[in-house]
Write a structure and sequence with these properties.
The chain has about 325 residues and is of the alpha+beta class. It is built from 3 helices and 14 strands.
């Protein structure tokens, strides 16, 4: 009986395949080339940290004190606004109707005051005719009645004036609520974000996404996170250089602005695989002119801060 010839062939093919796989697995893979070369510190002794670009007055999150449906949005991203300029308006029909009612109440109270004043004038005149009368021309009872009427007239005037003040206060409260439905810029700056549209409901409180974000961009700040383990090495006022991520050739010297001495949990993540997220950081603020770097608010940068142990290269 002849043995089948296909088995040696299959065994040979398998051996060749195994050899090829073994040779390929021993081949060294070329090192991955980074998309952009990382920045190099310009100092011999330094601290490094990730910096987040923000407006010089911080990024102001604008909200509303009264909830409602948005009626009008007066600005768009990139607009420069002045302090007090309208940003958006909440539907004010209910407040305007209420204000018309309060205006009517005030007019009614003022008319009642005029009526009380006229009555007071009449009762005072009637009492003046008899209060100095002598003899039996006017009875004591009549004098007493006219005196009481004059006193009552004075009381009615005081009550009417109090009613006018109350009506004015109610009207002022409604006018204040009406004015608060127009959200205005608390300061001069530039509109960074608009996250509300006409017809949408604007809620009050601290929102994850602010209705409008505002900031002053004539000068920018970089908020640099320094690991708490290195915070002791930092000295205020030392030199620092910021590098643009993606192009290490674009850099600028930045000026120390202030340090926030309260160490906070780290919230700005860089995406590095070796990054710790359970650490706390000291936040140092540096400033630079807007024209010095082509950056945008919210962009991350690499910042190197010189430490006293060494000097610049």
């Amino acid at each position: 009986m002849k043995k089948p010839k296909i088995l040696p062939i299959v065994a040979g093919v398998g051996l060749l395949f195994a050899t090829a796989v073994a040779l390929r697995s021993n081949t060294k893979k070329p090192a991955a080339i980074p998309i952009a070369q990382p920045a190099e510190a310009p100092y011999t002794s330094y601290l490094g940290g990730a910096g987040l670009v923000e407006a010089s007055n911080d990024n102001i999150s604008i909200g509303t004190s009264l909830p409602g449906i948005v009626k009008l949005v007066s600005v768009k991203v990139g607009d420069k606004v002045k302090a007090g300029q309208s940003l958006f308006q909440i539907d004010d029909r209910e407040q305007r109707a209420d204000m018309a009612v309060k205006q009517g109440d005030l007019a009614k109270a003022e008319a009642a005051l005029q009526e009380a004043l006229a009555s007071q004038k009449d009762t005072a005149a009637q009492f003046a005719l008899v209060k100095d009368a002598k003899g039996s021309a006017v009875s004591v009872d009549d004098i007493q009645k006219r005196q009481n009427a004059a006193i009552l007239g004075d009381a009615k005037v005081q009550s009417a004036r109090a009613a006018v003040q109350y009506a004015r206060a109610n009207l002022a409260t409604t006018q204040s609520a009406l004015e608060r439905l127009t959200v205005r810029a608390p300061m001069a700056g530039e509109v960074l974000q608009v996250n509300v549209r006409p017809g949408e409901y604007a809620a009050t409180g601290v929102l994850d996404t602010p209705l409008v974000r505002l900031g002053s961009l004539e000068q920018l700040h970089i908020r640099v996170d320094i690991d708490e383990n290195d915070a002791w090495r930092f000295k205020p006022g030392t030199r620092a250089t910021a590098f643009l991520r993606g192009n290490r050739d674009i850099k600028a010297a930045v000026t120390f602005a202030r340090v926030e001495p309260y160490v906070t949990p780290k919230t700005s993540l860089t995406g590095s695989s070796s990054e710790r997220v359970d650490t706390r950081v000291l936040q140092v603020i540096y400033s630079f002119e807007r024209s010095a770097l082509p950056v945008y608010v919210g962009q991350q940068m690499d910042v190197f801060i010189e430490t006293p142990e060494g000097g610049q290269k």
